[in-house]
Design goal:
It is built from ten helices and 14 strands. By secondary structure, the protein is α+β, with helices and mostly antiparallel strands. The protein has three domains: 123 residues, Beta-Lactamase (2-Layer Sandwich), CATH 3.30.450; 75 residues; 166 residues, Histidine kinase-like ATPase, C-terminal domain (Heat Shock Protein 90), CATH 3.30.565.10. The chain is elongated.
């Protein structure tokens, strides 16, 4: 049988038509990007799908090393080395291959060693559609919460006030030994009312007032609050792109959203060595069809501004990860599970996208937002965009 060298030849020295033409034709026709990486991490083969993935012709690709195509510190470089050392295939999900030229590129990777020291790399790009489908679920959950909050506020708050008032009157009429029971009634009534107040935030149908917002001022405010309260024992690192344009939106709402994300990160971070990394970047390649104020219905809108919040906590259980933006879903023993649902609503109100990926010691919340343009400002006042 032919060896891997027959199917994935190294760079031909004197001909543009390498040996193993049939195998090469099959690989070249595959829709998934395939690269062959040489012993010095140089590229020795790339199929047509790889040309499209990296937006570079094969002639230029084969003049590069792998490190030239991926972001600094990309784990793919280490995975190639591990594949060679172990002599066995390795797979990894959600590897970030983004760069300024390509925009956002997240892919699952599979690496297989060949007998001649080369490594065969197969890329399966993680579709943006997968993330947008989740956004529709988050927005649907937020709308459901809006209706629920309106009903609960009307049907529960009034009788709850009556129950609390009656308990206060009983407190003066019962013996001292039983007053703890009336106090319990008052405390529980207050707790339920606080929960209803939080849920009412989902039912706020007022139009979002859009003004140019400097996202770094938002994050700076969140960081200062965190360092003086819930995140005082956590190291907060900033990796900012200072040239980012403004975001069209509401400053206070964005502070509230990122405050909730950072608070969750601080709660998850370990007591010793806890770290939160705030990152901003410009990703020009991300476009989706999303309801941004003033945009033409069905038109693809660019979401180039990326904000990530990363913590080194234990991670989110895999079975819980798909549902963390749903109401009443929480990993905290005393949490109500409304914080991230509210975050999803606020980001959706701004025409943005939020997603989360998690593994032990590396949980990332990624927010993609539009930037200021005539179409993203208040072209349709009075309209709700939730």
């Amino acid at each position: 049988m032919g060896s891997p060298q027959t199917v994935f030849p190294v760079k031909p020295m004197s001909s543009n038509r390498p040996a193993g033409v049939t195998g090469i034709a099959i690989v070249a026709a595959l829709p998934m990007p395939i690269l062959v990486i040489g012993p010095d991490d140089e590229l020795v083969y790339a199929n047509q799908a790889a040309e499209q993935f990296f937006d570079t012709g094969v002639g230029l690709l084969l003049k590069h090393k792998l490190a030239d195509l991926v972001p600094f510190g990309c784990p793919l470089i280490e995975l190639v080395g591990q594949t060679r050392e172990r002599g066995a295939s390795i797979g990894e999900r959600n590897v970030d291959l983004s760069n300024p030229k390509l925009g956002e590129r997240i892919a699952d990777v599979n690496l297989t060693p060949s007998d001649d020291g080369n490594v065969i790399l197969l890329l399966q790009e993680r579709g943006l559609a997968q993330r947008i489908d989740r956004q529709l679920l988050y927005r649907g959950a937020a709308r459901s919460m809006s209706g629920m909050a309106a009903v609960l506020a009307h049907e529960i708050k009034n009788p709850l006030a009556g129950i609390r008032g009656a308990a206060q009157l009983l407190e003066d009429a019962v013996p001292d030994s039983e007053r703890s029971l009336t106090k319990l009634i008052c405390d529980e009534a207050d707790r339920i009312r606080a929960l209803i107040d939080r849920m009412e935030s989902f039912g706020d149908a007022r139009a979002l007032t859009r003004n140019p917002v400097n996202i770094h001022e938002v994050l700076d405010r969140v960081k200062r609050v965190a360092r003086t309260s819930f995140g005082r024992d956590v190291r907060i690192v900033e990796v900012f792109d200072p040239s980012l344009p403004a975001v069209p939106g509401d400053n206070d709402s964005l502070i509230q959203a990122f405050m909730n994300i950072v608070r969750n990160a601080a709660d998850a971070a370990p007591a010793e060595g806890g770290e939160i990394v705030l990152t901003t970047a410009y990703r020009p390649g991300v476009k989706i069809t999303t309801p941004v104020a003033g945009a033409t219905p069905g038109k693809r809108v660019s979401l180039p501004l990326e904000v990530t919040v990363r913590d080194n906590g234990p991670g989110i259980p895999p079975d819980l990860l798909p549902y963390i933006f749903d109401p009443f879903i929480t990993t905290k023993s005393k949490g109500a599970g409304l914080g991230l649902a509210l975050v999803a609503k606020i980001i959706a109100d701004h025409g943005g996208v939020i997603e989360c990926e998690s593994q032990p010691r590396r949980t990332i919340f990624r927010v993609l937002l539009p930037v200021v343009s005539p179409q993203t400002m208040n072209a349709q006042p009075g309209k709700t965009h939730a």
